[in-house]
C-alpha cells in the first residue's frame, strides 16, 4: 500500500490503543467508582490523565483522517491521465472521522477540566444543616 495509507493506518491503531487505555484510566479516576485510591484529589488526577489520553487519541485520529483527505485532494487536483469519473472523492468515513476526532478531543478536554483548583484541594464539602425556625434572636 501507499505510504500515506500505511501512516494513516498506524495513526489509527495508535489512536485506538490510546482511547482504550483512556477509557480504563478514566473509569478508575471516576469519583463514583471504588477502584484505586479513596482520596478525591488523586482520583481527579487519574481522571485528568485519562482526559489527556483521550485528547491524544483524538489528535491521532484527526491527523490520520486529515492526512488521507490531503492525499485525496492532491490526487484530485493533480493533472493526470486518470479519467475524471475514476478520481477519488471525500467519503462519509472522512466526515465521521473528523466528527469522532473532535468529539474525542472535546470529551478529553472536559475530563482535563475536572482537576481541582489549588485553593479547594483538601476541602471537604459537608453541608451544615441549620434549621431556619430554630434561630433565636436576642
From TrEMBL:
Location of this chain's protein in the cell: Cell junction, Tight junction; Cell membrane
GO molecular function: structural molecule activity
GO cellular component: bicellular tight junction; plasma membrane
Transmembrane portions of the chain: 12-33, 45-70, 90-113
Top-level taxon of origin: Eukaryota
PANTHER family: CLAUDIN
Protein name: CLD19 protein
Organism: Mesembrinibis cayennensis
